[in-house]
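During the reporting period the student researcher (J.K.) took over the structure-prediction task from the postdoctoral fellow and processed the backlog of single-chain submissions. One of the processed entries is reproduced below for the supervisory committee.
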Amino acid sequence: MNDLEERLRAALDARAATYEASPTAWMKVQQRAGRRRWAWPVILAALPVALVAVLVPVLLNGGLDRQTVTGPPPNPVPVGRELVIDNPAENRPMRLWYATDHRGLVVFCHAVQYAGDATQTSCGGNVGAQAMKSAGWFEGTTQSVPPRESVLDYGGARPDVATVTAVTKKGTRVTGAVRRPAGAPFKIWTVVFPATDQVTAYEFAAADGRLLSRVARTVAMPPEAEQGRPAGAATDLADLSVRPYSTPDRTLIWTLDGRELGLNLVRAKDLMRDMGGKPMDVELRVNGGRWFGIARPATAKVELVRKDGKVLRAAVKQDPWKIGVRLFAGEEPVSGDLYLEGFALVGYDSSGKELWREDHPADKPAWDPHPPIGEVVTIGEAKVWFSKVTLADGRTWDGLCRSVAGEKTTCDAFQPVAAGDAERLPDLGKSAIGVAGSEVTQVEAVTSGTRGSVYAPSGAPLKIWVVPNRGGSERFALRNAEQDTVATVGGSAPDKCSVSPPVGQAAALGTWATLTHQDGCLIIWTDNGRFITEKHKIDDATYEFRSGFLAGYAVVKTAKVELVYDDGSRVTATLTADPWGLGLTLFSARSTNSNPDADVVGYDAAGKEIWRR
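J.K. obtained the following structure tokens:
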């Protein structure tokens, strides 16, 4: 996109925001366009040069009553780090950050990569004005037409906001995450909820639970079929149902057990044509593992060829409404992410001759959410590298990332490792894997004697060790160049949740630690890079006490927590309720007496001791 096109697009977006339109209109345009973005070169090519020359400055200045701008405004300058999170609607990471525009105003920015399609980046809105009106505010959503299984809403919040809660039409409540990226002037909140839920409001609260603001969510997403008028009877195809509708546009809507999965625009002048008016052979839709769509009338057979060569076949049917297309739907759902993996869609005529073919190369990341620190190492079918991972409270930690074709990249956080030490991380397929210090040159399984490999990636802070492993409680000996064993690690592979950076809400435990809950894991993260975790278990109390700092959680009946020293001195901890509704009491304290032998004692509301550690 050249400068003129970029300015025109920005101007159109800005002008569109000044009109009262359906909040879902753009999402519907995207879906009806087959998830293809507007090609600005095509649009501009269709306009007379003189008209473009007049249109751009008029739009850029908001209308005919403003002075013409002779050059484009500078791109917004980021303020602080960006937040990279998973977008459940697209199975891709998305980026959220703050920036200052050419007027010096703080704006909210987001960048979204669409599966099998382009990336959209946008900045807008006066954040300062929003923060004056409310402690938190809505900025955007991944909600689409038809809906994906999960929706991600996001927005900004003032620094005093500690929690965000979505309130649904049914009265249920969904807790989100509030983070403040390093250097950012405001916080960023996110909430993930099922697409079947209708969120009506968001509540923003302080660390002590005090409600700061409640804002309405006005983005409504009624099913497309509820807004249209049927133009024919439904027909079934491979467990799916498809039916034509005539309002607001002639559209085929696909459903599975009553849930809308996708749609195809079949208005005569737009039938089987892209946004530039060029004829197309096929329009494919993929949602929740189901693949379906419409193809040229002569198409008698449709096959989906996966990267590994496996061929999936579709049921094909002539449309019964005389639209002039063939309907097709996969006879079996697909697993994994087709667009991450790459695939081909092939159509044949009745004689078996190939009629058309669409090749879909594997999606290339629009940006790298986990940029490598040093060289990337290939281990079997996996790529492994060091990177920084972002914790739920916005802090960063060292991590080891792994990527396998067709799967999402994961990064495992790990504790600091000394030159003569090592740590084991969750297994890589059928191999044990971990990180090691600079002195380690060899690794071997203690019981079986199986030798492994030690990689020293160029530019990386540590080494990587790998040993083929059949499971069980095997231990691994790490040796130096003199054959001396410098570290032994092993036993069972670490629990995945103990090393993965959490994506859920982080609760503050004083100023030095945070507690997260994710997939049954409660993890205490501290400033010095240490953590403890409990998997699917909530004991009477679990805590971390180091260098005079106390942080932990206890069962709900705990009304008071104290540090009790041998000399009789006591320090009372600050208590808060957990933000996840687990019935826990969170506690934290700062003591000038750093004696680690102090007892941590919990009391009930009557002052009776109920636990002691």
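The committee noted the following: Helices lie at 3-16, 25-32, 40-45, 49-60, 127-133, 224-227, 338-341.
J.K. will present the remaining backlog at the next meeting.
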